[in-house]
Amino acid sequence: MKEILMGVLCLLLISANAQDKKDALKESIDQLHKAMLDADESALVNLTIAELTYGHSGGLIEDKNAFVENLVSGNADFETMDISDLVMTLKEDVAWARCVMDASVVDGGERKSVVLKILYVWTLDDGDWKLLARQAVK
């Protein structure tokens, strides 16, 4: 009987830990979107890993520095951003999330409305979820 109770307790703890990780991932995704809207340099730097690869729907690939600079400089300025259909999957210290982004952005001085399908890849870094990769498609 003790073994069964210990087994159930272990399963509950594992399940709670997985839910905590998923909740933390959702919070990081929300913080990233807010940082992109606000062009918040500190938050963008803190939410991304040094090896970031950020792919745009048109084929442009940015590293972390280019991604942050593009937003902070105002070259890309998100006016609105609505996220839907978010699906998150976790596998140990790696997670991926898919969503649909409906946004209004001023890109290189030109206002555009975009609807993109986004794939994010996140990794746990010192206990925090950090964006490792992002790819968008139309």
Give a verbal description of the structure:
The protein is of the alpha+beta class and 138 residues long. The chain has a single domain (2-137), classed as Roll (Nuclear Transport Factor 2, Chain: A). The protein has three helices and six strands; from the N terminus they run H-H-E-E-H-E-E-E-E. The protein has helices spanning 2-38, 41-47, 64-72, and strands spanning 48-55, 61-63, 76-91, 94-107, 110-125, 128-137. A six-stranded mixed beta sheet has the order 2-1-6-5-4-3. A hairpin with a 2-residue loop joins strand 5 and strand 6 (128-137). Helix 1 (2-38) packs antiparallel against helix 2. The radius of gyration is 18 Å and the shape is globular. The termini are far apart. The model is unreliable at 7-16 (pLDDT under 50).
Please state the structural category.
alpha+beta
Q: How many strands appear in the DSSP assignment?
A: 6
In the sheet with the most strands, the strands line up as 2-1-6-5-4-3
Summarize the biggest pleated sheet.
Answer: 6 strands, mixed
Mean pLDDT figure: 90
**Strand portion, in percent?**
over 45%
Tell me the number of structural domains.
1
**What is the overall shape?**
globular
Distance between the termini: 56 Å
Rg over CA atoms, rounded to whole Å, is: 18 Å
CATH architecture: Roll
Q: What series of H and E elements makes up the topology? A: HHEEHEEEE
- Helix % is 25-40%
Do you know the CATH topology? Nuclear Transport Factor 2, Chain: A
Number of helices: 3
Q: What is the C-level CATH assignment? A: Alpha Beta
The residue ranges in which pLDDT falls below 50 over 5 or more consecutive positions are 7-16
